[in-house]
Amino acid sequence: MKIQELADKMGLTIHTIRFYEKEGLLDDRHVRRESNNYRNYSEEAVERLKLVKNFQSIGCSLAELKEALQECDTNMSTNLQIIDWIRGKKKEIESKKEEYDQMLNTLNWMLECRTLLMTDSQQAQEMMKSWQAGSSD
Question: Looking at the predicted structure, is the pLDDT value of residue 1 above 90?
């Protein structure tokens, strides 16, 4: 299939597919050049891009993605190594979630305080003072 057909099928841009190819995520198992130098992608390319999207959906960096795909291709990792990697990735995401929860709590407080300013400025001022006192600890 041509690059535009693959892009449409996978919900990606042509630029993204070319980038993946340049980075080595797609290789000659996935794409061949025709005599006119057009790319011709195999069904394996579709499966590979699904795998790429799955790894991206769990927050993998390009370096992690390359490493994971290489391990999939060579089957060099043991099950225990893969389990350790999954646990590490899970811990990383849980840590980010805690950070985001703290950010949301702060934004909710700011919203409550600003909304209160419209109806009860004195209470809003007290909220701000208590927040400033708490943040100076």
Answer: yes
- DSSP 8-state symbol, 26: S
Q: Are residues 103 and 86 in the same domain?
A: yes
User: If you search the block for the tokens 């790429």, which residue do you land on?
Assistant: 52
DSSP state of 92: H
Which residue blocks in 1-137 are alpha helix, DSSP H?
A: 3-10, 14-22, 43-57, 62-74, 79-119, 121-135
CB 30 within 8 A of CB 43: no
Q: What percent of the chain is modeled with pLDDT above 90?
A: 62
Question: Can you say how many angstroms the Cα of residue 13 is from the centroid of all Cα atoms in its chain?
Answer: 17
Q: What is the pLDDT of residues 80-132, one digit of tens each?
A: 988 999 999 999 999 999 999 999 999 999 999 889 888 988 888 888 888 77
Closest listed residue to residue 66, CA positions, set 19, 136, 128, 10: 19
Determine the 3-state secondary structure of 31 from DSSP: strand
* Domain of 58, in residue numbers: 3-74
User: What are the φ and ψ backbone dihedral angles of 2, each rounded to 5 degrees?
Assistant: -80, 165
